[in-house]
Amino acid sequence: MTVVRGAPHRSGRIDHVIVAIDLGTTNAKVGVFDGPRLLATASRAIQTVHPGPGRAEQDPDGWLATVGPTVHEACAAAGAGSVDAIGLTAQSDSLVVVGNDGRAMGPSLLWMDDRGTAEAARFERDLGRAAIHRRTGLRSAANYTAAKAAWLKEADPDRFARARWMLQPKDYVHLRLTGVPATDPSSASRTLLYDLETGDWWPDAVAAAGLSATQLPPLAPSASSVGTLTAEAGRLLGLPSGIPVVIGAADRAAEALGLGIGGPECMISTGTATGVALAVPLAERPVDDRITSPAHAIAGEALALLSIPTSGATVEWLAGIRGSRARDRIGSLTALAATSEPGARGVTVVPTFHGARSFRWEPRARGAIVGLDLGTSLADLARAFMEGIAFEVAACLAVLERAHGPIDHSRLTGGGFASPFASQLMADITGRPAHRSTERDAALVGAMLIAGQAIGRWTDPRAQAVARLGAGRVLVPRSELQAAYAAAADRYRDTVDSVLAMAAD
Question: Which helix (H) or strand (E) holds 149?
Fold first, then answer.
């Protein structure tokens, strides 16, 4: 499905146009900006294939086939006559194996694909859990590209031997648009191979993964343009060749920048997955190894990040099971959830449908729905799914606070909690004010701000982000619901403990 939102009313000419591309897990989105002003957006769905249990793949060439017409549509809706720069962001962790011709040598193994689980365990044994966290800011797990590449070396040695580059989705798009291989620290630090202490690839980790340093792309700051749009790529996008293409940042870093996250405020971004993140000085990243700390798009900073891999995906799953014919299935399900009562009439959902991450790190965990009775309605189920995500976010906030200090409020982004009901639910359950801006696509904004910095439009992208956010809407926790949610939170904790215990058996 294609979605296009046209330009708002404006006067005068368009001065400085930046096209931002966000290659998400479920959609490719494009935003066209005049300076910091959003003129138009367009989006198209991306297909994920599940060829077996625990496996998830996408076609990298399909990404380009989707991005091309989406850029056409957004630029047409904006009435943009010329473009000053193209900024990029994308899903992180997924692996793209690229041959000497610069083309993908097969499907991309997505971040949610669990191939590489055994290799991640071996990687941890070889290098040590503490050393991995200190040097990379990560825990060794199958979702990261190094583990997937190590799996590929054993499963398909011929393809591995012929591989020229091991890339992530953003960097593959950059390569196809410019012909230049490159990555930035925010993406590199999602591989298990990037050393936060030296700002370069970590030789010991590269060797432990069975890779060669020559298979990894050159590093450059997020706000760098090391290539321009080729004639072939220009035809694909409907734009003239020679436009600077800015390397950009991984999705969570772009979102955090787009929301202007800094100080005692936390980002909560819910799409297919949920990211809960603080922006912290690189030298002050958490020592608690349950918390990941990849590099931020802002030099000298990291994200203190906890991820819930199947949050929004579980709501999508329930919407599919429901079989609604509504055009907006998620919106319809959210409206239904609002008709149930706080605590979902005793129903509890643990959203670990594809393993527990956040701070729990149990890949064998699976989801749970408990408390059903013959009076349970679909509205109760829908609310319990949304409450389960919010309870897990609240648990993540508690861990981040213990590691880094008080969190005053959160900023919400992503479609998962876009509705007033869902945003209020997040405020009530986390017990903190939740700020919801009118801009839902923070990653696009982040990609635009980085591109603007690269071409000299501004020097402080976070200040630009804060200025463009405006007041938005602030949802304040409602004290009258504390008792209902306290009981539901106790049920959630007990159920999570049971889920983790079963997974460990």
Answer: helix 145-155
Q: How many C-beta atoms surround the C-beta of residue 485 within 10 A?
A: 23
**How wide is the angle at C-alpha 472 spanned by C-alphas 470 and 476, nearest 5°?**
135
CA-derived radius of gyration, the chain? 22
pLDDT digits (tens, 9 = 90+) for 437-452: 777 789 999 999 999 9
DSSP letter assigned to residue 214: G
In angstroms, rounded to a whole number, what is the distance separating the alpha carbons of residues 298 and 196?
13
pLDDT at 8 over 60: no
* 112-158 confidence digits (pLDDT tens): 999 999 999 999 999 999 999 999 999 999 999 999 999 999 999 99
pLDDT class of 107 with cuts at 50, 70, 90: very high
For the purposes of burial, counting CB atoms within 10 Å of the CB of 433, is it exposed (0-12), middle (13-18) or buried (19 or more)? middle
Residues 6 or more apart in contact with residue 66 via CB below 8 angstroms: 28, 44, 45, 46
Over residues 468-486, mean pLDDT: 89
Q: What is the mean pLDDT of the chain?
A: 93
Task: Give the strand pairing for 17-23 and 85-90.
Answer: parallel
- The residue whose two tokens read 């009118």 is 438
312-434+476-504: CATH number: 3.30.420.40
| Domain boundaries defined on the chain | 2-253, 312-434+476-504
Q: Two tokens at 319?
A: 């919407």
**CB atoms inside a 10 Å sphere around CB 134:** 15
Q: DSSP secondary structure string, 425-444?
A: HHHHHHTS-EEE-S---HHH
CATH number of the domain located at residue range(s) 2-253 in this protein? 3.30.420.40
pLDDT at 471 over 50: yes
pTM, whole model, 2 decimals?
0.91
Tokens for 113, please give them. Answer: 């694909």
Beta-sheet pairing, 348-350 with 368-370: antiparallel
Please enumerate in sequence order all residues whose Cβ is within 8 A of that of 195, keeping only pairs 6 or more positions apart, or say none.
135, 136, 201, 202, 205
195 phi/psi in degrees, rounded to 5:
-95, 110
Where does residue 183 rank: exposed (0-12), middle (13-18), buried (19+ CB within 10 A)?
buried
What per-residue confidence (pLDDT) applies to 11? 42
So what's the pLDDT on residue 90? 97
464 phi and psi angles, rounded to 5 deg: -65, -40
Tokens of residue 99, six digits:
């041959």
2-253 shares its CATH topology with 312-434+476-504: yes
pLDDT of residue 437: 77
Instruction: Tell me how far apart the alpha carbons of residues 497 and 489 are, in angstroms, rounded to a whole number.
Output: 12
Please say if the pLDDT value at position 211 is more than 60: yes
